[in-house]
Amino acid sequence: TYEKLWLVAAMVLIVGFIATITYGSVALGITMVGDQQETVEPTELNDERFSDPRVAQVGENEYEAYVTAQMFSFQPDPIEVPEDSEVTFYVTSRDVIHSFSLVGTNVNTMVIPGEVAEMTVEFDEPEEYGVVCNEYCGPNHHNMEGMVHVV
Ligand code: CUA
Fold this sequence. Notes:
The chain is an alpha+beta fold. The chain has a single domain (2-150), classed as Immunoglobulin-like (Sandwich), CATH 2.60.40.420. The chain contains 2 helices and 12 strands. It has helices at 2-28, 48-51, and strands spanning 30-32, 39-40, 55-57, 62-70, 73-75, 79-81, 85-93, 98-102, 108-111, 116-123, 127-132, 145-150. The strands form 2 sheets. Strands 1, 2, 3, 4, 5, 7 and 10 form a 7-stranded mixed β-sheet that branches. Strand 3 and strand 4 form a beta hairpin. The protein is elongated and about 65 Å long. The structure holds dinuclear copper ion.
């Protein structure tokens, strides 16, 4: 019947959409796990983590990356994490609003002074991702770059 045909057509479309989304993330070897817009108050974190921003191993394949943005760089640079890892980024700003965006991925968050942006990302394979700032932050905004090395 026509009704059945429509149902099949709808199913094919849905599977197609899911495949497209899945392929998109798998192809890049990167998957967003956490809510990229989630923020936590800096008082909930030890401020020392941001005075010496770095990557800390917190589980077998789990890492926490403490990152600061300021005119016109990110620290640490590069951010080095191993493949097959799940990395939670905590990103804050020392001065004005920046963003922390991994080129060619959907990893992108605003970085607001006084707040900590939190997002969790799975890195499946060795890759180099450029980090850029997408918020205008001053005369050298367009040169504000960093790097994530998945090794
Ligand atoms: Cu930092 Cu634009």
